[in-house]
Amino acid sequence: MIDEEGLEQVWTRHATLARAIWAAAEAWGQGGPLRLNVPDPSARSHAITALSLDEGQADALRAWVKATTGVTLGIGLGREPASAHLRIGHMGHVNAHMVLGVLGAIESGLKALRIPHGRGGLEAAASVVAGA
């Protein structure tokens, strides 16, 4: 699959999808407790994004998203309290519609659980994917 797509295109796809997730998280963080665990974009991974919320909110969001949309969000490995952290994996056989779907599930969960968050997360992600 890598040979078919081309290695440079794979790296570009991973970087774009990572930036889309970061853009959504940054927009959501403008109006609530959601934060990227690595504030400096140049130090972030193109494979996984780690986020934090207030204690208990990440557990609640993970549970709601899985039960309602079938999307599994990762736990916060090695972070305390564990109930305040989650991860989104976005490397490998992942594409824009998968990432945008995950972000839509997360945004729906934030709304359903009344977790305060800024607006425009999906729009920010879509703009990155569009190259805008």
| Low-pLDDT segments, ≥5 res | none
CATH superfamily: Aspartate Aminotransferase, domain 1
Distance between the amino and carboxyl termini: 27 Å
**Run of helices and strands:** HHEEHEEHH
Number of strands: 4
- Major beta sheet, strand line-up: 1-2-4-3
Integer tally of domains: 1
Q: What is the overall silhouette?
A: globular
CATH class: Alpha Beta
Main sheet attributes: strand count, strand direction, barrel closure: 4 strands, antiparallel
Helix share bin: 40-55%
Structural class: alpha+beta
Strand content: 5-15%
- At the fold tier of CATH, the topology name is Aspartate Aminotransferase, domain 1
Mean pLDDT: 94
Radius of gyration: 14 Å
CATH architecture: Alpha-Beta Complex
Q: What count of helical segments does DSSP give?
A: 5
What topology emerges from the helices and strands here?
Layout: H1 2-5, H2 7-29, E1 35-36, E2 48-52, H3 57-69, E3 74-75, E4 85-89, H4 96-112, H5 121-130
Antiparallel strand pairs: 1-2, 2-4, 3-4
Helix pairs in contact: 2-4, 2-5, 3-4, 4-5
Short note summarizing the structure:
With 132 residues, this protein is an alpha+beta fold.
Describe this structure in words.
This protein is α+β, with helices and mostly antiparallel strands and 132 residues long. It has one domain: Aspartate Aminotransferase, domain 1, CATH 3.90.1150.10. It is 51% helix and 11% strand. Strands 1-2-4-3 form a four-stranded antiparallel beta sheet, with helices on one face. Helix 2 packs parallel to helix 4, helix 2 packs antiparallel against helix 5 and helix 4 packs antiparallel against helix 5. The two termini are 27 Å apart. The model has no long low-confidence stretch (mean pLDDT 94).
